[in-house]
Design brief:
- By secondary structure, the protein is mostly helical.
- The chain has two domains: 62 residues, Serine Threonine Protein Phosphatase 5, Tetratricopeptide repeat (Alpha Horseshoe); 66 residues, Tetratricopeptide repeat domain (Serine Threonine Protein Phosphatase 5, Tetratricopeptide repeat), CATH 1.25.40.
- It has eight helices and no strands.
- Helix 1 runs antiparallel to helix 2, helix 2 runs antiparallel to helix 3 and helix 5 packs antiparallel against helix 6.
- 33% of the residues are buried.
- It comes from Thalassobaculum fulvum.
- Pfam families: TPR_1, TPR_16.
- Keywords: TPR repeat.
Length: 144
């Protein structure tokens, strides 16, 4: 049985992490490599390491939506809701029609105790993706 923060065995994330290190050995510090290493670190419960890696990727490519969204996920997992909201605001600046970023910003605002701001974000999410189940459910819960 696997404990928290441990690899997922030979065929799982732990094995994948080792394989990825070998494949990217010639370019360990490019933004894409740092992003994937951050994803793998987060999957293995290493939030601080994931934050450091995605932060380095964003220094190289500060306007990359994928990296900004991942930074928000890392911050949310770490309970750093102000930082998650900042990353999502930047991602929305890069792509204002990104429904997932609007939804995530709503979640961050909810966690920060700002339900009115959260509702505005979820409505914006639904504007761009009318069937977004998470936003629909969040708004319905807020009206109860």
């Amino acid at each position: 049985m696997r404990g928290p923060g441990r690899g997922r065995g030979r065929g799982g994330i732990g094995g994948l992490e080792g394989l990825y290190r070998k494949v990217t050995a010639s370019r360990p510090d490019d933004a894409r490599t740092l992003n994937v290493k951050s994803v793998l670190a987060l999957e293995n419960g290493r939030v601080a390491e994931a934050a450091e890696l995605i932060g380095r990727a964003l220094v190289i490519e500060p306007a990359e939506r994928t990296y900004l969204f991942h930074m928000a996920k890392v911050c949310a997992r770490g309970g750093w809701w102000h930082e998650a909201a900042d990353a999502l605001r930047h991602a929305i600046y890069v792509n204002p029609r990104d429904a997932e970023c609007w939804y995530g910003l709503g979640v961050a605002f909810k966690e920060l105790g700002e339900p009115d701001q959260a509702a505005v974000c979820w409505q914006q999410c639904l504007l761009f993706e009318p069937g977004h189940a998470g936003a629909q459910e969040a708004l319905a819960q807020g009206q109860r």
